[in-house]
Amino acid sequence: MSEENTPIEGHCPSSFQPVADAFRQNFAEHDDLGASFCLVRHGETVIDLWGGYLDVERTRPWQRDTLVNVYSTTKTMTALSALLLADRGELDFDRPVRDYWPEFGKPQITTAHFMSHTAGLSGLDEPTVPQDLYDWEKITGLLAAQDPWWEPGTASGYHAITQGYLTGEVVRRITGQTLGTFFRKEIAEPLGTDFHIGLPEEHDERVGDLVPPQATPQEQSDPHSIAARTFANPFSPAENSSTTAWRRAEIPAAGGIGNARSVAQTQAVLAMDGELQAKRLLSPEGCRRALEEQTSGVDLVLGVALSHGLGYGLGNAVMPLPSPNACFWGGWGGSTILVDFDQGLALSYVMNRMEGDLLGDVRGGLLTAAVYQSLAQGA
Known about the structure:
By secondary structure, this protein is an alpha+beta fold. The chain contains 11 helices and 13 strands.
């Protein structure tokens, strides 16, 4: 349990008091160490909370501008980049990938398969070491040459690490820019958001280390399953996220660095039909493509029923969302993002003490529930 006097700062209107209570409850009852939460609604930052500590000794308070690795919540930034290119007419999700990436010799695979985890390339056949993740050409070359593990398009299988290289290479082939550079120039800088895929050195002092979970995904799987093979290769332990090499590398499925404010303020452009901060990035139709269901069923890697849009998870009977026109994703350890088109909102939770879950956990769930409780009460 955390200390009773855990420092919590920021702002939360009294109409959203259940959210402030849930944020504090996460420290008191769910062992949060350091965390942030943000709600952007109708383009305005309504809630912005942060608190706790950056270290297990509780000597360094979480600051307003603290950043941490958010793992797979990063995937929504990569997806947003691809949606932007598609909206501009430069990327057709249904064209064969090899039309953009000639070395990718699998004509049956489209970028939509990458976006929905159905390409059959969730892991690598050739053994790799964690440091290989910093070698873009090596990983993309292996993926271009490898045969799929299942028939593309027939089922999803969570591409935990590989999705970012696959989608990112399509972006690079079209634009001539790395995914991190394209995201920075075309999305983060225009919106003024503090999220990074490939962290510049000048931000190092603001980054907190993650506290790794006790269990890792591959320990929970049959070693011969697609799930185990996916998590085992490529693999990088959570401790690596604290290294300079990881932070400088562009790992667009897992290496993004930010906080709840930067995640919510970036993804809010979707909830606002493409226009935010008086800047139009996408058309309303381009934003809604995130909701186009690509596949639904038991995921071959995660073993749970998932529905995928273009780059985002959708609600289903097993994993319902609070609105019919909403999408989400989460990161290993507990970070989350939810975009609700009907309510015009984006909310995010980001923390430093990791749990073993891959798509968020009870901490983000309690905060999300508190937001919708407040809305139902007239907030």
